[in-house]
Q: What sequence folds into this?
């Protein structure tokens, strides 16, 4: 039962990743059909992200009331409904309405499943869990590409994903007896647990450090993913077609790295893996700067992706050890919210730098975020040391 539930959790994370890259793949067709500016994709992304942040902050309250299994099943059902709504919509503003349940569902399942795996499974399973997200994120655009090249339209792509998620929703509801219930009684005090508000989470020793750490990490990952191709093309002079393919190697590095890291965590601790990842990122940035040709830049980009691979899952897995099992759901929920804030804020900020100063500053920007992340993580380890 324990391993069967783990397989279902992996399926849920593949499902979580499936629609994440589909909007980018479908938008060139979608904005023409809707008759809206190209930039309106940012409105949809912002609405989805806002819903994700809100539901992440409510994850502690929801899991205490419903349990992780029900929260996951209901959240996947919400995203399935929202994606089906996408598939039947031919109006941009209706699409904005469907983006709200899409975001709300994604945040709840992300925070709840991360905490459940952190509490009940080993670090290697956490790495493989996030590898599954990468599998989903890589598969989604292929499904959309199949729909578009087959002449079925972008709506069909979203419909296929929604049907897959409807099937997963049924599996999740059938699996509810397998999920371990989260205790509503504090074992230390004997009192009934109450959901922690954001202000209470921020008062926990080490919480601010881990939130800044998460913000910076996601800033590094999302900025690298969005701007690496532009940096290679505009600064390194690599042809745009080759630069675009190099950009995808960054995400391949993350996904393959998480698959491999699952085996490394058998021997190494979360702390060692996080520090190792940070070392790989700085090495990759240095290699990108070195003027030794096209493939040197590619090697640096892949190295940054490999460095990013262990950091996110290992920080999450170590959260119960740092803050206690009774507080981990609340802390992880806020971590997820700060992660999405970093993803939202840092790539556009670098866009302004690239536009008004120079895209060549990408490595400097990444180094600043990396240094702040390292400082915050080392402080976290120091103040939560038991």
A:
């Amino acid at each position: 039962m324990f391993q069967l539930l783990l397989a279902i959790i992996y399926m849920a994370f593949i499902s979580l990743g499936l629609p994440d890259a589909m909007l980018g793949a479908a938008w060139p067709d979608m904005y023409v059909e809707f008759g809206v500016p190209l930039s309106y994709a940012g409105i949809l992304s912002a609405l989805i992200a806002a819903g994700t942040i809100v539901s992440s902050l409510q994850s502690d309250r929801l899991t205490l009331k419903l349990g992780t299994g029900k929260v996951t099943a209901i959240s996947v059902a919400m995203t399935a409904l929202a994606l089906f709504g996408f598939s039947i919509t031919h109006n941009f503003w209706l699409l904005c309405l469907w983006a709200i349940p899409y975001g709300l569902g994604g945040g709840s399942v992300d925070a709840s499943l991360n905490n459940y795996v952190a509490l009940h499974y080993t670090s290697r399973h956490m790495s493989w869990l996030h590898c599954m997200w990468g599998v989903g994120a890589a598969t989604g655009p292929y499904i959309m590409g199949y729909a578009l090249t087959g002449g079925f339209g972008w709506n069909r792509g979203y419909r296929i994903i929604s049907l897959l998620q409807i099937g997963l929703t049924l599996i999740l509801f059938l699996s509810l007896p397998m999920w371990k219930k989260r205790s509503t009684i504090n074992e230390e005090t004997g009192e009934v647990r109450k959901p922690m508000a954001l202000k209470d989470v921020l008062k926990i020793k080490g919480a601010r450090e881990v939130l800044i750490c998460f913000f910076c990490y996601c800033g590094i990952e999302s900025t690298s993913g969005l701007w690496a191709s532009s940096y290679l093309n505009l600064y390194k002079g690599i042809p745009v077609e080759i630069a675009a393919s190099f950009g995808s190697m960054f995400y391949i590095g993350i996904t393959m790295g998480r698959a491999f890291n699952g085996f490394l965590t058998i021997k190494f601790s979360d702390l060692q893996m996080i520090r190792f990842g940070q070392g790989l990122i700085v090495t990759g940035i240095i290699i990108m700067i070195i003027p030794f040709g096209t493939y040197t830049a590619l090697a640096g980009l892949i190295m940054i992706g490999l460095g990013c691979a262990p950091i996110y899952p290992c920080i999450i897995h170590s959260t119960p050890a740092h803050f206690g099992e009774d507080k981990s759901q609340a802390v992880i929920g806020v971590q997820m919210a700060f992660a999405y804030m970093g993803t939202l804020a840092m790539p556009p900020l670098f866009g302004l730098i690239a536009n008004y100063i120079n895209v060549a500053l990408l490595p400097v920007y990444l180094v600043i975020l990396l240094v702040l992340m390292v400082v915050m993580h080392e402080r976290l380890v120091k103040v939560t040391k038991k």
Q: What stands out?
A: The chain is about 80% helix and 0% strand. The mean pLDDT is 86. The radius of gyration is 20 Å.
